[in-house]
Design goal:
- By secondary structure, the protein is of the alpha/beta class.
- It is built from 14 helices and 14 strands.
- Strands 3-2-4-5-7-6-12 form a seven-stranded mixed beta sheet, with helices on both faces.
- Helix 2 links the parallel strand 2 and strand 3.
- Helix 3 packs parallel to helix 5, helix 10 crosses helix 14 and helix 11 crosses helix 12.
C-alpha cells in the first residue's frame, strides 16, 4: 500500500503512516479523524490503506468543518479516547482556532487540572509547492505563542516515525506540523531509532564557528548551507529545534555559547516570527557570548506567490543562509 521505495529505505510519508499504524494497533483508544483520511487515503497519502486495515470506526472521514471535527476530537479526548485529528493544511486550521485556543489549550487550566485534553492534531505546513498564497502558510509560530499546547515540527525520517507515540502519551494537546515538501523525501530509517525526546532540540551537524538554528522544511537548506560553508573553512553547527513550544532554550544557548554567532532560519514571515523569539532568547541568555549580531533568514513579507520563480525568491534559500553566515563571520 502506498508508494514503494527501494529495500532498506522509506519516505517521510511512509514513516508517518507507519507511526499511525503502530498507534492504531497498540491502543484501542486511538482513532484517526479528518477530511479525506479514509477512502481517499489522506490529501497527501499519509493514511492510505489504513481504512481497509482498521475499519471506519478507527479511521473516520469527517464533514468539511474544521471547527466541528476538532471540537469532536476535543470531546473524545475528554472522554478518555486518544484522537489523532488531521487538518488538511495549516490555513484550514484557522477555521478551528477557537476550538484549539479557547478549548483544547485552556480546559486543563480552567478546570484546576481535572480535564486533560490528550489530543493530537496533525497538519501540513509550508510553501515551495506552487500552491499560492492561501495554501502556503507557515503558521506554526502562531501556535507556538499559545500556552497549554505542545508544538512539534518533525524534519527527519526518524522524527516523522517516532514523534507520534510520545505525542499521544502527552496529557496536553499536541500539534504536529509536517512540511509539505518533506513527504516524498526518502532515506534510511535506522532500526535502532525509537521514541523521540520531545523536550530537546537536536544537533544535526556539530560545528564551532557559527550556529544555524532552524526546524521543519528549512533543515535541509541549513544543512546544505553548512556544506557550502565547510568548503570555505567555516564550520557551521546546525541545530534542529524540533519542538517549537516549549523551546529548548538551553540547547540554543549552549550552541551559541560554543560558536559565538547565530543565524536563525524560519520560513514564516520575519515580523513577529518564531525567529524573532529565538533571537530574543539568545539576546537575553547569551548576549555577552555573541561576536556578531544574530542574523535572521525568513520569508519575504508578502503573500506567497504562485509563480515558481517568485515563490523561490520569497522563501529562504540555501544561498540566503550562506550570505547571512558570511555577514556574521566576516
Amino acid at each position: 500500500m502506498g508508494t514503494k521505495t527501494a529495500a532498506g529505505t522509506t519516505t517521510y510519508r511512509e514513516a508517518m503512516r507507519e507511526a499511525l499504524r503502530e498507534a492504531l494497533s497498540s491502543d484501542d483508544r486511538v482513532f484517526l479523524m479528518g477530511e479525506d483520511v479514509g477512502r481517499y487515503g489522506g490529501c497527501f497519502g499519509v493514511s492510505l490503506g489504513l481504512l481497509e486495515e482498521f475499519g471506519p470506526e478507527r479511521v473516520r472521514d469527517s464533514p468539511l468543518s474544521e471547527s466541528a471535527f476538532v471540537g469532536a476530537g476535543i470531546g473524545a479526548a475528554l472522554a478518555g479516547m486518544r484522537p489523532i485529528v488531521e487538518i488538511m493544511t495549516v490555513n484550514f486550521s484557522l477555521l478551528a482556532l477557537d476550538q484549539i485556543l479557547n478549548n483544547a489549550a485552556t480546559l486543563l487550566h480552567m478546570s484546576g487540572g481535572q480535564l486533560p485534553v490528550p489530543l493530537v492534531i496533525r497538519t501540513t505546513t509550508g510553501a515551495g509547492r506552487q500552491l499560492a498564497a492561501q495554501h502556503s502558510h507557515s503558521l506554526e509560530g502562531w501556535y507556538a505563542h499559545i500556552p497549554g499546547i505542545r508544538v512539534l515540527a518533525p524534519a527527519t525520517l526518524e522524527d516523522a516515525r517516532h514523534m507520534l507515540a510520545p505525542a499521544l502519551a502527552d496529557p496536553d494537546p499536541v500539534l504536529i506540523f509536517e512540511h509539505g515538501s518533506l513527504y516524498n523525501v526518502s532515506g534510511e530509517l535506522p532500526p535502532s531509532a525509537g521514541p523521540v525526546d520531545l523536550d530537546h532540540a537536536a544537533i544535526r551537524r556539530p560545528g564551532t564557528d557559527i550556529t544555524l538554528i532552524t526546524y521543519g522544511g528549512s533543515l535541509s537548506k541549513a544543512l546544505a548551507a553548512a556544506d557550502e560553508l565547510a568548503a570555505e573553512n567555516i564550520d557551521a553547527e546546525v541545530l534542529d529545534l524540533r519542538t517549537l513550544r516549549p523551546l529548548d532554550v538551553a540547547a540554543i544557548t549552549t550552541s551559541v555559547t560554543r560558536t559565538h554567532r547565530a543565524v536563525v532560519v524560519d520560513e514564516a514571515w520575519r515580523t513577529g516570527s518564531l525567529a524573532a523569539e529565538v533571537s530574543a532568547r539568545i539576546a537575553e541568555d547569551a548576549f555577552y557570548e555573541l561576536d556578531a549580531p544574530v542574523e535572521r533568514v525568513c520569508s519575504a513579507e508578502v503573500p506567497i506567490p504562485y509563480a515558481r520563480q517568485l515563490e523561490e525568491a520569497a522563501l529562504p534559500q540555501t544561498a540566503d543562509i550562506v550570505a547571512a553566515a558570511h555577514r556574521a563571520v566576516d
